[in-house]
Amino acid sequence: MKRLLTAILLLGGTASAGETLINGAGATFPYPLYSKWFSEYHKAHPELQFNYQSIGSGGGIQQITKGTVDFGASDAPLSDEELSKIPDAVHIPTVLGAVVVTYNIPVEGLRLTPELLAGIYLGKITTWNDAAIAKANPEAKLPGDAIAVTHRSDGSGTTSIFTDYLAKVSPEWKEKVGAGKSVKWPTGLGGKGNEGVTGLVKQTPGAIGYVELAYATQNKLPMAALRNRDGNFVKPSTESTSEAAAGVEMPADFRVSITNAPGKNAYPIASFTYLLVHRDAKDAVKGPALVQFLWWAIHEAQALATPLDYAALPKPVVAKVEQTIKSLTVAGKSVTLAAAN
Amino acid sequence: MRQPTDIPAAGPLQAVEPSISGRSRNPGDRVWGGVLVALGGLVLVVAGAIVLVLGDAARPAYGQLGILKFLTSSDWDPVAGSFGALPFIYGTLVTSLVAIFFAVPISIGLALFLSEMGPARLRPVVSFAIETLAAIPSVVYGLWGLFVLVPLLRNPIEPMLGKALGFLPMFKGPPIGLGYLAAGLILAVMILPTIASVIIEVLKTVPPSLREGALALGATRWEAIRMAVLPYGRAGIIGATLLGLGRALGETMAVTMVIGNSPEVHASLFAPGYSLPAVIANEFAEATGDLHLAALAGLGLVLFGITIILNVCARLLVWKVARGPVGVRA
Predict the structure, then answer these.
(1) What is the pLDDT of residues A274-297, one digit of tens each?
(2) A185 contacts B262 by C-beta, under 8 angstroms
(3) How far is B208 from chain A (nearest CA, A)?
(4) Between A57, A183, A190, which is nearest B261 by CB?
(5) How confident is the model at residue A15 (pLDDT cuts 50, 70, 90)?
(6) Which domains does chain B have, with CATH numbers?
């Protein structure tokens, strides 16, 4: 029996003696944070090794559905169709991301309303000195440049969040374009990735585009303040992003869009990013280890998020995710969590 | 006189020839022949497998949308589940043609310069420069295009072209910079080394006697090139062009960075477009839904089909040209 076990371990070949390897795949957006988490967690638990492949949310969902990885990661919650293929999937929100609107005109602190943003992306507002933009920016000196609209050309969670927001605030957008990772843009140029969009915006006078908050902060891009549901102009930041999650009625499975969220200081284009795990893990070693890691991720690990420009989960959400993690089982039995917090 | 006359001079040739068809008595030859046949067959198997797998993956798209509608519709809307390949086919063909339009004459000129007129000391330098061009990764070309070529096109090249030739639909529209023209020019630079180095080799095979004969008959240098050298190398030049075209059709990274990635069909070269490989690379990783994936696989099959059709045309053209008379009739 012992020899058989050794043989299996050797055949697996994925972990050296006494080390457990947990495989995951999915979203690219939280990858910098996750790799930080995995390496910190490995330092504290040398017997655990994580292998995460940032192949995109779609790939992560596919791999966990096929059972080739222990956990998946996605920027958007599973659709009903996707969930029907993997009914025992559990969403664990880990951190929040936001999408910011960046621009290339010599105006500091541009302010945009939902109607303006939708109008620009629908191709209806075409110049920067349009009366409607001037009304929202009474103090700014707006140039007469044509607005060059840019967007992501690759399918991405960022586009999904951005179009989800536009579809919520503009009935016309909802009807004509809709929301998704790739959509049929009414106007504008496509750039590949955050860096592609940034490249287009930086070198096209009069351009407007959208990128992730973390990317925009690290590259010091100009960011527009958006008018939120409560009527306040809010600048994108990790705090205002966390705020967006605090005011939303949270369903038990966390499959919720938090764009255009209520809250005085809530930034309106925000979203959770999730880890996807099975409600009942089969592996007696990996299962409890993963559950323990998730517990760590929503508590101590949250402190690592803000320095990397991800927004931490607000307290009420953490309390709710705790319940979900406690409900996870391994081979039908609940996991005793080593007390932390 | 040691050899009897009944052994023909072609003896050694005969010993080699049957070994490939497996008739030789030497078992080593037979094994070797078998290996060669297997290797040759493998290429066909791989090509066939690609078609089968792509065809199978694309079946939902062709089935649900109809092949004809898939190929001729220009509506690409993943949210609504409507997929048409036309903008991508058009973009791929237009950018490749622009690339050929610029790259072929320059390559011929370059090759002629190196083989016919350039000082011998300069040749290795220029050859080295051409080979270096071929070794630059395509993402670097893309970045160069985005940060150097596109701003130049936006101002002053496209406005100037628009002013001078704006009566042609090709040169109408606002000068955005990103678009078919930018992608075509980047591709031209990328396929130039391929085409040029093949043509250089082709021109090396032109027998000196042809050139000397023409010169001896009183032809100028240009006439010797036009009447003796180029006609001799025709087939090779066409072959080189198609080799370059093949590379242009499949180029992904550099094109997606400068073409504008907008799935529309425009007559103007200034307008943004999209190409087959670019949309596959962009949307495949995060495709939503089975139909979207199937449509992308369908685009892959279309690209494969275009490549095959072009290859067949190339073969026919080279074959026809090679059989034609050498030399120009006065």
Answers:
(1) 999 999 998 888 999 999 999 999
(2) yes
(3) 51
(4) A190
(5) very low
(6) 85-328 (1.10.3720.10)
Helix, strand, or coil (residue B87): helix
Express each pLDDT in A234-277 by its tens digit.
999 999 999 999 888 889 899 999 999 999 999 999 999 999 99
Q: Structure tokens of B155?
A: 């101002």
Question: What's the whole-number mean pLDDT along residues B86-107?
Answer: 96
Helix (H) or strand (E) holding A324: helix A315-326
Question: Listing from the earlier edge strand, what are the strands of the sheet with A189-191?
Answer: A48-53, A20-26, A71-74, A270-278, A89-103, A207-212, A148-152, A189-191
Contact criterion met (CB < 8 Å) for B260 and A56: no
* Contact (CB<8Å) A184/B261: no
Taking the CA of residue B263 and the nearest CA in chain A, the distance in Å comes to 8
CB A163 within 8 A of CB A66: no
How many Cβ contacts (< 8 angstroms) between chains A and B?
87
Do residue A192 and residue B147 have CB atoms under 8 angstroms apart? no
pLDDT at residue B320, rounded to an integer:
81
User: How many Å apart are CA A192 and CA A271, to the nearest integer?
Assistant: 21
The per-residue pLDDT for range A136-188, each reduced to its tens digit, is 999 999 999 899 999 999 888 899 999 999 999 999 999 999 998 899 999 99
Closest CA to A186 of A126, A123, A124: A123
